[in-house]
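Class, discuss our next protein.
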Amino acid sequence: MIYNQWYVILESREVKAKKPLKVTRLNETMVLWRNKTGKVCCIADRCCHRGASLSCGRLVDGKVECPFHGFLFDDEGKVKLIPANGKNANIPESQQVNSYITYENYGLIWIWYGDNDKKTDEPFFFKELANMSYSTFIDPWHAHYSRCIENQLDVVHLPFVHKTTIGAGNKTLVNGPVVVRNGEMITFYVDNIMDDGETVPLKPAEIPNYEKLFHLQFHYPNIWQNFISDKMRIFAAFVPVDNEHTLIYLRNYQNFITIPIVKHIVNYLIKLSNIVIIRQDKRVVETQLPLKSDVKMDERLIMGDKPIIEYRKHREALTKSEVHDILDFI
């Protein structure tokens, strides 16, 4: 995982008002709940006293109570009450567990995975989606989240994996693609055409007016959008569970239909189409080895893989930057 990043980990609707929720994210088991004001809280799901799962407990006055001995934890992971010691007892600072800063907006929940002093005010989101309606499909994949992301950066696979859906037309020849990185954002422009047996693919620098082409965007560490049109987008959050499992939160956004009942029907039908398409990807991606991708691997990449190459290079740069920060601190 890339350190010092905001990660989408859940949808807002998954965290209820009166019950703790246990999840595994980023190789760690966590418990989430809402406090008295409705704010999402997230701490490690393991009591510091005897190791019981806090998510099996209940909520008391906006805090989570351990089901074993009643220790009461706040949103910073600190023990606020040890019943056996009495309400007036001093509680040592060691009585605490890891906690995570949360952010909630757009029907999504992020956690800050990193050092608190390096936290940005809020995570990035494609804010143009805020005024569109959507429906969500959550799909579990037996794959490292880097592989899931790379699948959505792959413009070469369309006529083969999706030959009966979005890849129909036998457009196997790939011009470019053009890849533009701006900070943590990668935008790539797609121009796939039919192979007439004579045409040679254009290099990225040879493609004129590439800004007018169909394009997609990825923002580190784990969100992506498919820019179908001004009125329709596909969004995905690639949520790391552990080193071998990922949850893909797939949303279709649209605002070309606004009539309430019709809107929901259209969103549902688009979701069904997206399920078919993503399952075509899943069938292949889950076979890839090794499970996690890196810059240098036993692969023979081609020009059409440029978005994947750019993703890997910047991901490695972000990872190395974190290592240097840790060494400087030591």
Residues 323-330 have pLDDT under 50 and may be disordered. The CA atoms of residues 4 and 115 lie 6 Å apart. The radius of gyration is 23 Å. Helices lie at 145-151, 158-161, 260-285, 306-329.
